[in-house]
Design goal:
CATH topology of the largest domain: Beta Polymerase, domain 2
CATH class of the largest domain: Alpha Beta
Order of helices and strands: HEHEEEHHEHHHHHHH
Strand content: 5-15%
Strand order of the largest sheet: 3-4-2-1-5
Number of strands: 5
Structural class: alpha+beta
CATH architecture of the largest domain: 2-Layer Sandwich
Largest sheet: 5 strands, mixed
Number of helices: 11
Shape: globular
Distance between the termini: 6 Å
Amino acid sequence: MTPEALVRDHTVYACVTGSRAFGLATEGSDTDRRGVFLAPTALFWRFEKPPTHVEGPADEQFSWELERFCELALRANPNVLECLHSPIVEHADATGRELLALRDAFLSLRAYETFLRYALGQRRKLEADVRQYGAPRWKHAMHLLRLLASCRDLLRTGALVIDVGDQREPLLAVKRGEIPWPETERRMTRLAEEAEAALPGSPLPPEPDRARVEAFLTRARRASALSSPDVPEGGAG
């Protein structure tokens, strides 16, 4: 079974991410599509296992196998959590709807470390651009501010909200380079400090509900095995 066939025939959840999901799309913005596919259980009985992710087949499309997606979400990977909380869902079958119902099981205080670690890496890249070119890549600066605000609000409320709402215009002003870099840096620092301040009183649990997620994955694998017990012809990837 080809990677393209896995995405075409076995996708359980598909959504739009990026600027369109964040409420930051402008004319000419790409449409970033992300998805989750459930590889048939019989494929795992071979020496060659199915792929953990697939790029394409469409432009700006990327999909994870369900187990890999759950692993990353349990680690509070920012990109995966944002995919799971996208307001633009294009497809969800019964398994996909069950995955969506588990969104809260993936959320934990781990998000503070993963979001802030990712943000720190991005900020260092922006600072390197400023030293080399005199200005950052403003689009990346905008998305870093968005990520920091998202992390702060997640820690404060226990809910991950993707759409930036009334922050759209202030963030787009950063993207256009209308906010000086020193002021942009101050905003980044303030948001990081606010996220840290929210940590002690956060309603998020210390750890995600791994057992609940594992039970879901086991049910999905079992259902796949029972519905298609024969090993498919052809390679796994």
